[in-house]
Amino acid sequence: MTAQGSFAPDETFAAPLLAWYDDHGRKDLPWQRDRSAYRVWLSEVMLQQTQVRTVIPYFERFVAALPDLRTLAEAPQDRVLALWSGLGYYSRARNLHRTAQICVAEHGAELPRDVEALSALPGIGRSTAAAILAQTWGERHAILDGNVRRVLARWHGLRGWPGETATQRELWRLAERHTPHERVADYTQAIMDLGATLCVRSRPHCLRCPVAPGCVALRDGLTAQLPARKPTREKPTRATTMLIVRDAQRRTLLERRPPTGVWAGLWSLPETDDAAGASRRLLDRYAVRVDDGVALARFVHTFSHYHLEIAPLLLERAVPLDRVADAPDRAWYGPDELESLGLPAPVRKLLQTLNEEVR
After folding, report:
1. Annotated active-site positions, please?
2. I need a surface site. Which of 40, 239, 268, 333 has the fewest CB within 10 A?
């Protein structure tokens, strides 16, 4: 894979970008204040596939509760997942927790300064490691997140899908080439800001772009086509019935999901493929007797690879028949206890709506 058009010298890219950043860049984001490797790392992980305005309140709440790497490592996983609940892609939170524990055990409760050691930790990888080192200590390392890929693909007229190996390799080469030897932290933030605010996916603001004069996509009218989109496949739809089982005290029966798969490790509602047999399933599997269920409005939750059609079934006046209903990964929680749990976003919203209707 080769870029289209001739390459301009590096100074035609980094210099105007930094000048633009001085006047227009974001310099007061929460993780830029009291900057530390921990705070930069947390922000970079949260910002993976998530916009800044969404991340800010989660970041502030997370660091208020777990202000450093050691407190994160020592926190129960349920606490970490509860703080993350709603951000999605929960493997990011589990990887944060695991990485913190590794750093306490092997790196003196600090993130390693070596790029290879850092990128080998769970959930970090090459670009995130580079961003941590560049923004915390000003070390010269190139980054290549989604925003940077889009900027470089357009500026150089690179036509391949960035997920392809050859295109990815070329983008890394270009990212390395453009990264300056001075003001690396500012440059790293600047190119991310450019992609997030001007060189956006749809309708980029090319007239305000500081590097527009050298942009091949702008010159050739390709901004709508570059970077190339991933070949699409129609998402399948799956269906499940979620059982909202509540006892006389309005406690809800929840169970922890398996350690792998969708919503791994989170607390969620029991599910069944047979709504008509829900009462029998609850009696046989959970030792809980319930009244007949009331079907609530169906809704769809979309994952990256499929749609999930959820049919909630409300079963009240549940009576636990023995302690089988309180197995280690199964428990009853009152409305005021749900906030402290790691719950999938659609489950949390569903339960909050039900509890608010009762008040």
Report:
1. 44
2. 239
